[in-house]
Amino acid sequence: xxxxxxxxxxxxxxxxxxxxxxxxxxxxxxxxxxxxxxxxxxxxxxxxxxxxxxxxxxxxxxxxxxxxxxxxxxxxxxxxxxxxxxxxxxxxxxxxxxxxxxxxxxxxxxxxxxxxxxxxxxxxxxxxxxxxxxxxxxxxxxxxxxxxxxxxxxxxxxxxxxxxxxxxxxxxxxxxxxxxxxxxxxxxxxxxxxxxxxxxxxxxxxxxxxxxxxxxxxxxxxxxxxxxxxxxxxxxxxxxxxxxxxxxxxxxxxxxxxxxxxxxxxxxxxxxxxxxxxxxxxxxxxxxxxxxxxxxxxxxxxxxxxxxxxxxxxxxxxxxxxxxxxxxxxxxxxxxxxxxxxxxxxxxxxxxxxxxxxxxxxxxxxxxxxxxxxxxxxxxxxxxxxxxxxxxxxxxxxxxxxxxxxxxxxxxxxxxxxxxxxxxxxxxxxxxxxxxxxxxxxxxxxxxxxxxxxxxxxxxxxxxxxxxxxxxxxxxxxxxxxxxxxxxxxxxxxxxxxxxxxxxxxxxxxxxxxxxxxxxxxxxxxxxxxxxxxxxxxxxxxxxxxxxxxxxxxxxxxxxxxxxxxxxxxxxxxxxxxxxxxxxxxxxxxxxxxx
Length: 595
Prior knowledge:
22% strand, 20-stranded parallel β-sheet, 29 strands, alpha/beta, five-stranded parallel β-sheet, Leucine-rich repeat, LRR (right-handed beta-alpha superhelix), flat, 4 domains
């Protein structure tokens, strides 16, 4: 790179220069004045810490990209001399303030962020002169704007080409009325499509959050308010499709004010995705205009709203995805949503009596669900393809009762932290004829696999921290599963120190992973001898494991990848690159990864 800079005198007609991604670039040469014809300069993803004023001599420069120059804290003071600059991309930088006279960059079209310097609210007047900005801009550190008159100087309403706007404060301000006045002055143009407000601490939102002022708004994100107790009337925004509300800690009730005046039409008539998260004091959702609101809502997510008690909208005719987690006081029936496709519930008291029969994916964690309820859901959801159950302590011995019942769509089953689970359904090979993946993780009481065996369609099997089940491994009948290709175990041995036993694994296995095997000392050569297609062997956290015996017999010739991860001190010493005793034995393996 130094050679390039030394030859810049020979490149005086250069139009474009990109150093993007060169992490070893920490500074540019002090004198770039010879590159008079340069139009495009990209130094994104470099380690640049400072830009000298000589860059401002590139009077024909039109594009300057500084994306992810995270060490860069300041722009050159003469930046305003780049009178032909049209595009300035500052995403991912650490710029603390903008240089003075930014308003002289009158041709500027793209400015990804504008940082208001400390006690420099007057910078907004310079920003106001940038009349042709378009696309996306973030205005940051609005705490520095003390006078609302300065905020008005930004002239946001007249920037008619801007489509996306981020307004962000950086610290809590107890003068909520002042912050509201500042936000009032930043009323954007009516063509705005996406708006994000971060860390606003007014008690209310200004009037321009109503439909007449944001007729084209498609996406709105409101995040991090310590004092706001009332949400704006967003229900009448005619084009709003995505709404995300995070960390509004003083909101206790969401009621009619959220929906707006229904005489103007159905509230939230275009909304497709709605998310509430980390609303610490939220207790009640007054679902007004039931049957009229949210006619197009496809995705509803509510997370970490621990005081929320009631209720949910009950008629959501377009809902496809419902995701509720860590709302442990929420007791409500499921919405009436016939096209519901994905249901994810975690740590809440949602009633499961009326689960729709259209599910393709279901995830339940820390939910009260017993064998009867699970049986009912499986019988009534013939299209269910994925089932995830975690921390459901009432499940002991699930069975599926239904004459001739089988589900041809279920391909993935994941059981995690089922502390009381003792057995799996007896007729799994019949009930789930196309099961592709089965994971059993942290099921300490699970004693055995079904007597008739697992479905012959199984391709992936993972068994982690199931000690009683692992003890019965010789009765699993895995050798009959000719479709099984990928196996992951935590090898929990009591007396034996070698694994796997001869003929335990099916012959067509291509990938074998062993995790958290605290007592495992060696891998049994005879247990791998029949695995003619084994391509990948992966070992995680096996502190006593040594492969000396296996090396003496020879690693499988089919092996293409060997991975060693975590706490495996003996293996890492044995296979230390160029130095380890076993390193030469790995020469036929194309990919060896030791982490």
